[in-house]
């Protein structure tokens, strides 16, 4: 219980939606209740019907009502069930729409416009799975449990009103399968689930490790090691599954024993209660026949409950996402056109890092200037760019545009910065739609002009669907260089004064790289450009080169100056041109 | 509806027989239970004393317990078989992964394969457990009950018998309609979940373009329109369950009503009538169970197909054609007019490649991206197999492909991102050399220029690296791969596939100094598009659109005005 409370303490993912869609929720529960009620009532009524008929009453009138009721319940049960299933699915899907939006917004708040180079999609898929889990929580645990409890209360009260002693017995007996056993299942499974999660995790990571390194395994010829590495986790998983299964079988058997006891109690009770007269005795069959359909919803309650630990993990994970939101800064817009970007004593440390990644950097950039930034990976170049565009809040110092702090200009940011990074993303839609994202108000002609400007007109028009060609998942349809060009077309439409380039050519071959860089600097000649690059191809395009080492600038100057005066620069430049 | 493959599983027949017997006994228990309950009720109905129901109640209790114990027993009987089958499947899958090799596995996606080995096989297990017993239950229990009802009163038996095909027919018709809709819906689902992940992945880009906030509504709208569509298809899908439900429930009501009329007319006694009524739900129970679990088992069925597909995937055979080999100065490798077509491609990716190598050389492979450099390296490494037979030979021995155990013992492959295992640094370095001494590892690490970095690590060589542990930069990963080469003097062939393409120029310059010494006394294939490496090669292969357009000694190629010169001039930057 304490656990439960902890899970829902700061919950924003489950409870609010239960409240939001109260009406539909009540409807689902009502329909579920009625389904089982009709099932029980059908047998109850049928038992009475034939008992009464067997008395051979004088007129058919005597059994008329039960005959009509039999048909009514016979039809009602499937209809209720059908409507219940439709309603509950509808309800859950509604919630899923809300979930997706909420998850998106939560992730959006933390996303940065400048990606880390090798970002895996794993965490995202995990989150998407969590949403599915919460969906199942309702369908497989919450609804069946609540409906079961409603029936439980109904039966106890129903029998109790005839004989409170038997009612009490029912309360106890049925309480075992509707309350005690589900709770016990959660407890047992909670412990097991923890262990299971660990074993599966080992298996999963080991196997991923093995598959990713398969080439090395193959060449090394270590077939036996490869197979043996997984033997143990496979065994543990098998043992685990075995225990799981055994537990479930015997638990179901136990449920059946309780049902048996319930049946016997009711039978003995009706033997005493209803055998004083012939007309009363007709009820014996009614009660006896109704038991099995009436208790059927209880059979699966424990199973539903035992899935709870999995759901719990998901709920906690999505709730944890909400923590640590950024403090909002009051937003303004830029008063006049961009005339100066000043970076003053910028220092930054990641919350989970132990050192300053950016150390006291200052520089001023004027419109039209082009700066290249070089340095080994991990020195903080991307971090610096994130600070410049305002994705990160500096520990010290500030970034100003025309003397206005960038943190207060976030709402108008896309009119200030155009960004091209290592892996610009193409969405799974048409070329046209993808490029238009740069400026959603652009006309078709403007989009086509932008595509022509980056030199892709001929290629796109040679495709069967031309501008309506699907780019496929993550832009697979196109090569790396082509993807970069499409993104460049987006930036042209965006038409922002400052362009940020974060190693846009890192995955391209030198010829493609050279062509792309020529294109970029030709098309964006009147813009301000901050370009992080990993080597010196195309360096002649910029007015200023800065080397970054451990969060600070060391070497700087025009490329021509550096080539003349700095041996280190000259050596690197010559190496890049193959002149060594 | 019923999966035929199930009964072809090795050893299944024996279990079917044993389970069949158990299910048969269980059906008798069900009948006994119904009969005893009815007798008890009828005695009470006749206002007889409570003593008269003790006997029937005992029979009822015993039959009831027997019935449910038999369920447990059936599971117990079947489980070892299922456990073995799924366990074997898991191990076969592992072995198959190894034999298929990285190129095939890449095609299917690492995530897919791993999920298949874990969750997929679990689903197969659940599927086997559920479906075998359910099928037997469905094919035995209703018929025994029907037989008994026939014996009690043939009119009801005929009604119950007649309704069965109607149910099946409706289930099939509606099931088929629902299935095709559900398939389409599944595609819709795929699309939606892709759309959602697509949007999440593209978030940085949306943020760059200032659209990220606005997109939240788009996410919601797409999800909502999907909901509406799903509901319309779900309505049909659920109709098939509804039909089953409707017919079975209504049949019970009809049976009750008809029995009522017959009782009034004195055509039947209460006891048989009541027994029939109690048995009617039991008669429909197996088919309802089967239908209810049908969708749940679908996952298992699909998982089983997926696993079977992988297990039946053709693999390169003849891995042992090449006799024992130790590459030395006299060894030769010949490729004669080799072409290679990727499965699913129409055009060959490598066309008529001929190479003749003897002994130790430094061979550069250059060309624009997409020209086939990686494909050629993968061919030489034996990860891909050529179109034709016996166009390759080593030391004069014709080979179907280079996926030869004895050839693979002779080389090391260093790609752009060498894979680092989740293990200690020492284990990663000595991956290829079982039982390497610590001194040897340290010396190899030193030659690869790792010692300065190792000094900064908390546990030195014993620091855990790889996924989820300490992250290793691209340059260091290359050095670890290099240390493997230094550690293993027996592997005389080195295959490099653009090892420095993604490194920054300073890191690359430093790494180069440490790589050069390993080139000595090795046969090196080095695919690259960084010009400065070409200076270190004594032979160059120039690739263009899958063809080997020029090959020779770099200085001589530079004299000719061919593809080599053209490529270099396209790559080179101007003077500053
Ligand atoms: N989100 C983050 N949290 C903690 N540390 C980070 C994060 N992103 C980057 N770092 C660390 O900050 C340092 C600089 O990273 P980065 O700016 O990406 O370097 P570069 O772009 O120059 O390669 C690295 O040591 C990196 O591990
Ligand atoms: N698994 C694959 N299936 C089909 N085609 C492929 C596959 N891998 C590469 N290709 C194609 O083969 C050609 C050569 O690719 P690759 O060998 O990677 O070139 P390089 O290494 O020179 O850049 C390209 O056109 C590429 O699209
Ligand atoms: Mg970076
Ligand atoms: Mg390649």
From TrEMBL, chain A:
Gene3D superfamilies: ABC transporter type 1, transmembrane domain (1.20.1560.10), P-loop containing nucleotide triphosphate hydrolases (3.40.50.300)
Limits of the ABC transmembrane type-1 domain: 26-308
One MF term in the entry's GO annotations: ATP binding
Start and end residues of each ABC transporter domain: 341-575
Residue spans crossing the bilayer: 21-41, 61-80, 137-158, 164-187, 249-269
Keyword set, alphabetical order: ATP-binding, Membrane, Nucleotide-binding, Transmembrane, Transmembrane helix
Chief location category: membrane
Domain of life according to the entry: Bacteria
GO terms, biological process: cell redox homeostasis; glutathione transmembrane transport
UniProt KW Transport keyword: no
GO cellular component, one term: plasma membrane
Entries under Pfam families matching the protein: ABC_tran
Protein's cellular compartments: Cell membrane
Topology of this chain in the membrane: Multi-pass membrane protein
PANTHER family: ATP-BINDING CASSETTE SUB-FAMILY B (PTHR24221), TRANSPORT ATP-BINDING PROTEIN CYDC (PTHR24221:SF653)
Protein name in the entry: Cytochrome bd biosynthesis ABC transporter ATP-binding and permease components cydC
Organism: Lentilactobacillus parakefiri
UniProtKB/TrEMBL annotation, chain B:
Location(s) in or outside the cell: Cell membrane
Stretches assigned to the ABC transmembrane type-1 domain: 17-299
GO cellular component terms listed in the entry, alphabetical order: plasma membrane
Residues that span the membrane, as ranges: 12-32, 44-66, 127-151, 157-178, 236-261, 267-285
Keyword annotations: ATP-binding, Membrane, Nucleotide-binding, Transmembrane, Transmembrane helix
GO biological process terms on file: cysteine transport
Pfam family, any one: ABC_tran
Keyword Transmembrane: yes
Organism for this UniProt entry: Lentilactobacillus parakefiri
Annotated protein name in UniProt: Cytochrome bd biosynthesis ABC transporter ATP-binding and permease components cydD
GO MF terms held by the record: ABC-type transporter activity; ATP binding; ATP hydrolysis activity; ATPase-coupled lipid transmembrane transporter activity
Membrane topology, as annotated: Multi-pass membrane protein
InterPro entries named in the record: AAA+_ATPase, ABC1_TM_dom, ABC1_TM_sf, ABC_transporter-like_ATP-bd, ABC_transporter-like_CS, ABC_transptr_CydD, P-loop_NTPase, Type_1_exporter
Ranges for domain ABC transporter: 333-570
Superkingdom in the source lineage: Bacteria
